[in-house]
Amino acid sequence: MTETWDPAAPGVLRLPSGRLVRGRGLRYPVPAGARPAFALYLLGKEPPGVEWEHRWVRWPDFWLPSDRAAAAEALREAWERALSERVEVACGGGKGRTGTALACLAVLDGVPAEQAVAYVREHYDKRAVETPWQRRFVARFSPTG
């Protein structure tokens, strides 16, 4: 059985394939309603425990993932799971790292890398992907590894 997000819920991004992924900032309360089945947390230090399955990618604020290969693997897992599960991607504020990760998910979903930041800014948050190196990370992100 497929259990995905309500497309009208706050922070939910619809990828071109129809997959729904929720982005959010961990500094804010968990939104009311459905809980994630799986979450990808992008933080400089280990996140606090949650009741759902999650994966942590060490990713300092305003920077890039400490281990880019591990980040790419985690992003591929999140994209695959979003086909049939509620997947959440989150960092502290829900803009820079989360936007960068969502743009990478868009690339995995078929959006050309050079258009992925604009796609996420249009469909998720106009301030997503905050730094030039985050934009460059998305532009160089490859769907094939």
TrEMBL record:
<dbReference type="InterPro" id="IPR029021">
    <property type="entry name" value="Prot-tyrosine_phosphatase-like"/>
</dbReference>
<feature type="domain" description="Swiss Army Knife protein DSP-PTPase phosphatase">
    <location>
        <begin position="85"/>
        <end position="117"/>
    </location>
</feature>
<dbReference type="Pfam" id="PF22784">
    <property type="entry name" value="PTP-SAK"/>
</dbReference>
<dbReference type="GO" id="GO:0016791">
    <property type="term" value="F:phosphatase activity"/>
</dbReference>
<protein>
    <submittedName>
        <fullName>Protein phosphatase</fullName>
    </submittedName>
</protein>
<dbReference type="InterPro" id="IPR057023">
    <property type="entry name" value="PTP-SAK"/>
</dbReference>
<keyword id="KW-0378">Hydrolase</keyword>
